[in-house]
Write a structure and sequence with these properties.
Layout (H helix, E strand, L loop, with lengths): L3 H29 L3 H27 L10 H16 L2 H32 L3 H27 L8
């Protein structure tokens, strides 16, 4: 990669892979969660993530590229961490850990979409900029919902 366009396309492939991996991982999180609110948050985010994949496909189309993913080591690591929590944690620690793992994914996505949005703007990809801004706003909103859930419910649960 030598140009801004190169890194833009590479990172776009990275988040496309990440979002499709998240679609596979979220049902496991929802199933493992003990808190009904956390279970619902995971299920809601699954639906939102599917819509985001469609938006990413529109982004690819808008820049004249075929939608494709490139393995994202970061998301693989974050999903592996969540899988480990599902296997090893229980009680209050399980839901608190799963929520924290979900937020780690959100923070990763916020960082990626923030960069992609600005690169799209700099490259003159107006439609991509609009779509990536929409996804970034959704990711920030999801993170805020998770934070609220953590401070009002999950992290205040009885210590076990």
């Amino acid at each position: 990669m030598k140009t801004l366009s190169d890194i833009f396309e590479h990172t776009l492939q990275d988040v496309y892979y990440a979002e499709t991996a998240i679609i596979k991982a979220l049902p496991k999180v929802a199933k493992a969660a003990k808190s009904p609110e956390l279970k619902k948050a995971a299920e809601d985010h699954l639906s939102e993530t599917k819509d985001q994949v469609k938006k990413l496909e529109q982004v690819f189309k808008s820049i004249g590229k075929k939608a494709s993913g490139e393995k994202c080591d970061a998301i693989e690591g974050l999903i592996k961490e969540a899988d480990g929590l599902i296997e090893d944690a229980e009680g209050t620690a399980l839901d608190a850990g799963l929520l924290a793992a979900c937020q780690a994914v959100e923070h990763y996505e916020i960082a990626r979409y923030g960069s992609l949005r600005e690169w799209a703007k700099d490259l003159g990809h107006d439609e991509a900029h609009k779509l990536l801004s929409e996804i970034l706003d959704q990711e920030k909103a999801t993170n805020n919902k998770l934070t609220n859930l953590a401070v009002t419910s999950i992290n205040t649960a009885k210590k076990a």
